[in-house]
Specification:
80 residues, 4 strands, Translation Initiation Factor IF3, alpha+beta, globular, 31% strand
Length: 80
């Protein structure tokens, strides 16, 4: 299990979700991906994408300018 970071700052919808999806495809089951973004829509879009694809949202942190969403990748298609 390893940790990865995706910089999706200054990207507008739907790009943070698309970049998250592309990054998750390259990761192993159980890996974590920290997505750093500035698009406020990602606050709902990325967790919704995770639910659909079986990944788990581990943490969401929001500041005035950035949103950091940490997800656990599930290759088996089910959340753990």
């Amino acid at each position: 299990m390893s940790e990865h970071t995706l910089d999706a700052r200054n990207l507008l919808c739907p790009m943070p979700v698309i970049r998250t999806q592309n990054a998750a495809k390259a990761l192993a089951d159980g890996d974590t991906l920290k997505v750093i973004c500035t698009d406020p829509g990602a606050m709902s879009d990325i967790p919704a994408w995770c639910r659909i694809h079986g990944h788990s949202v581990l943490d969401i942190q929001q500041s005035d300018k950035e949103l950091v969403i940490t997800i656990k990748v599930a290759k088996s298609g089910r959340a753990s």
